[in-house]
Amino acid sequence: MASSLLLIFSWRGMFFSAGILTLLIAAVLIKTLKEPEKGLQDSVQPADADNPTSLDDEVSAPHPLQTLKTREAIGHFIRSPRFWLISLGVSALAVLFEFQVFLPIYLSETYDLAPAYAGIASSTFSLGCLVAVFSGGFIYDKLTKKSLIYALGLSLTLAVASLLLLRVLGDQGSTGALELTLTVLLIFLFGFSISPAYYIPMSVFSISFGGRHCGLLVGLIDAIAYFGAMSFDFIGGAVANKEGGWQDFILILIVTSVLATIIMTTFLYLDYRHSRQAMLEPTKLECINPAS
């Protein structure tokens, strides 16, 4: 929605406003995200020590990576097929998310919209992500791992369908109000469809698989994803810059979306199978067989 500022500000004024807002947010974070006072820590510790049902007692077994050093944890990650599947899947989804970078240009060139209105129209992508992630977080916790395979598989299939319809609309060559409305709705559906698979499984997997090294695991996965997104920016920009290049651009997204659906569905299946094996063999530590 910040794109609407272009209706009253210049580009320079918009960047200046964003800088001021960033400084205000940084000041609030510095003020609020502080270590608790020593007195408060001391008052919490005795109560925790007297509690016989503390978190340490509830954990039946230590995490397999608890005693591993950083280098050993990285070796554990790269030997796991699930790590590579989630990394490639999130990388493909990151490429799809890069569409939002090109959306204002796409809408401006296709429907002859002013930059401010093109930015406002493209915000439906972020709105779809917001609705999906907010509602998906509640639904994700209530579904079994087996149900997640079908739920996220269906969600990503809808993403493929929305891109196909976008390409069909582009083939028609019409730029009327009806076509623009349908395009905006499809953009909303696209953002709604890909965001749960992009955000939630990777976060949950990183915590359960990475243990105390979950931050390292998230960093590795995100690094691979950003490399894929960066590579697409070069390729996608060159393709879109050609005559009639937006149709080829969307075709690349369609192929990427199909790959993301296959990879993420395979990852979810392997994760489901691993959880079943863990239930059948609760005493078997994952680090004994890291490639499971």
UniProtKB/TrEMBL annotation:
<feature type="transmembrane region" description="Helical">
    <location>
        <begin position="147"/>
        <end position="168"/>
    </location>
</feature>
<feature type="transmembrane region" description="Helical">
    <location>
        <begin position="119"/>
        <end position="140"/>
    </location>
</feature>
<feature type="transmembrane region" description="Helical">
    <location>
        <begin position="249"/>
        <end position="270"/>
    </location>
</feature>
<keyword id="KW-0812">Transmembrane</keyword>
<feature type="transmembrane region" description="Helical">
    <location>
        <begin position="6"/>
        <end position="30"/>
    </location>
</feature>
<dbReference type="InterPro" id="IPR036259">
    <property type="entry name" value="MFS_trans_sf"/>
</dbReference>
<feature type="transmembrane region" description="Helical">
    <location>
        <begin position="180"/>
        <end position="200"/>
    </location>
</feature>
<protein>
    <recommendedName>
        <fullName>Major facilitator superfamily (MFS) profile domain-containing protein</fullName>
    </recommendedName>
</protein>
<dbReference type="GO" id="GO:0035435">
    <property type="term" value="P:phosphate ion transmembrane transport"/>
</dbReference>
<dbReference type="InterPro" id="IPR020846">
    <property type="entry name" value="MFS_dom"/>
</dbReference>
<dbReference type="InterPro" id="IPR051337">
    <property type="entry name" value="OPA_Antiporter"/>
</dbReference>
<keyword id="KW-0472">Membrane</keyword>
<feature type="transmembrane region" description="Helical">
    <location>
        <begin position="83"/>
        <end position="107"/>
    </location>
</feature>
<feature type="domain" description="Major facilitator superfamily (MFS) profile">
    <location>
        <begin position="1"/>
        <end position="273"/>
    </location>
</feature>
<keyword id="KW-1133">Transmembrane helix</keyword>
<dbReference type="GO" id="GO:0016020">
    <property type="term" value="C:membrane"/>
</dbReference>
<dbReference type="GO" id="GO:0061513">
    <property type="term" value="F:glucose 6-phosphate:phosphate antiporter activity"/>
</dbReference>
<dbReference type="InterPro" id="IPR011701">
    <property type="entry name" value="MFS"/>
</dbReference>
<dbReference type="Pfam" id="PF07690">
    <property type="entry name" value="MFS_1"/>
</dbReference>
<feature type="transmembrane region" description="Helical">
    <location>
        <begin position="212"/>
        <end position="229"/>
    </location>
</feature>
<dbReference type="GO" id="GO:0012505">
    <property type="term" value="C:endomembrane system"/>
</dbReference>
